[in-house]
Amino acid sequence: MGIPARVVKFCCLCLFWSGLSLSLGSCGSNSNSPAMPVIVPLDAPSIPYASPLSIAGTESNVMPITVGCQLVNEPCVSVTVCQAGGLAGSNHCVTIPNILLDTGSQGLRVFASAVPFSLPARTDPASGNPLAECQPYADGTSDWGSLVTADVLLGNGNDRAANIPIQLINSSFATVPSNCTQPDTDPVSAKYNGVLGVGLFAVDCGDGCATNANNGLYFACAGSTCHPVAVSVDHQVSNPVTSLASGNNNGVIIQLPSVTASGTATLSGFMILGVGTQADNKPSSTATFFQADSSGEIGTAFAGTMYGAVIDSGSNAIYFPDTNLPQCTSSNISQFYCPASPTNLFGIVVGNSSSVNDKVTYQVTDAYSALVNSVAVDPGLGGTNSGFFDWGLPFFFGKSVYMGLDGKSSSLGTGMYWAF
Fold first, then answer.
1. pLDDT in tens, 76-105
2. Nearest Cα to 286, choosing from 358, 212, 372, 368?
3. Rounded CA separation 401/380 (Å)
4. Residue 156 falls within a domain, yes or no?
5. How do beta strands 318-320 and 382-384 pair?
6. Which of 278, 286, 309, 393 has its CB surrounded by the most CB atoms within 10 Å?
């Protein structure tokens, strides 16, 4: 298995345009989100985590998660894509496995090669030309391809999000724009068949892309030539959860078991659709609520400094700034930490304008050992990041993590929020 590459499917640009308050530098500089509290807590109590939900895995609103499907700490689900009105199991639908589950982005993106039928193109109303998108990620990679309309079915009960915009990843579509760096070319090299972004926003960009043609994401393509274009919110790639017909559309819960320090070869868990919309997703009374700011961030105090932070299942490590931990010397994993012995650390999670501080402890171990031992699931994987805190997949181990989508209400509160 090993760690052949950094997997960080977190979209800085998504936060920039959706929230309109976060500079792009927040993913790699020393600037912090101004909405974060200015008082830096030096310590805080560790609040007990939410009691786990009793999930069998066969419920209609549950999506099984497999961790380590092709890369270390890579959570994958299966998603069904249909032509409008298509029935699961028919020749108008296809169920695609090994879809990276990403709480750090919005929308479904699948390789065009994984869809064996045609889907209607989304077009620019002004020119009539097909729309395309370059979706950048914090690791320097991107997904390029056309926008189409599809029905997306989630969960064991095939809960339908009808006629929504999705992206077909295809680096051969038209001419890739110069700002679209390291576009994924095929499922083999990308190590997934697509990305399911279930982040806090309803769409992947928002008003910024609707009013600004030079948004860096959206393009209208005449033949092989693509030009930047403003795209209305209803044409942007959308988070399928917000459109689910069942009403389980106000958020999701991700529940993964604990992992021993040495890691494991396999790990299974669940994503539950909806928060408090039916009996099996009723929030635990012990869940602690953290409001996110308009950029989808919470705060994390680490070593006396407050950072903007995200909770991101698409990042395979906890990425944070630490000048004391040694980085790995092997060039292919130099972005990870390789301490001589396991190192116990903590960050203090703070909600936006909230007095609730939660001390979250974690351990960082030698990333090289995971490479040598070829573990698929490594709870001690930590990586470097400047000026920002990315609570990647190891944060999810042993927790029930609730996500409240923008403007959607539940018994926990109104989104955007996290609770755990």
1. 999 999 999 999 999 999 999 999 999 999
2. 358
3. 19
4. yes
5. parallel
6. 393
Report how many domains make up the chain. Answer: 2
The region that residue 4 occupies, defined by phi over 0 for left and psi between -120 and 50 for alpha, beta otherwise, is: alpha
Residue with tokens 């038209």: 174
Q: Residue 125: give the domain boundaries.
A: 62-243
The CA radius of gyration of the chain, in Å to the nearest whole number, is: 20
Total number of residues shown for the chain: 420
Mean pLDDT by 10 residues, the chain (420 residues): 44 41 29 51 89 97 95 96 94 97 97 98 96 91 97 98 98 96 95 97 95 96 97 97 97 97 94 98 95 95 95 96 94 91 96 87 92 86 95 98 97 96
Instruction: Please indicate, yes or no, whether residues 233 and 300 belong to a single structural domain of this protein.
Output: no
- Tokens read off for 301: 């105090």
Q: Does 79 share its domain with 100?
A: yes
Map residue 187 onto helix, strand or coil.
Answer: helix
Same domain? 192 vs 316: no
Q: Which residues of 273-291 are buried (b: 16+ CB within 10 A; e: fewer)?
A: bbbbbeebbebbeebbbbb
123 in helix, strand or coil? strand
CA distance 342 to 364: 6
Provide the residue type at 124 as one letter.
D
Question: What sign results for the dihedral spanned by CA atoms 23, 8, 311, 13?
Answer: positive
Rounded to the nearest integer, the mean pLDDT of the chain is: 90
Max Cα–Cα distance, the chain, nearest Å: 60
Output the pTM of the full model. Answer: 0.92
CATH code for position 401: 2.40.70
Select from 226, 139, 112, 101 the least CA-distant residue to 175. Answer: 226
- Dig out the tokens for 352 from the structure: 């936006």
Could you say which DSSP state residue 287 is in?
A: P
Q: Is residue 208 part of a domain?
A: yes
The pLDDT assigned to 130 comes to 98
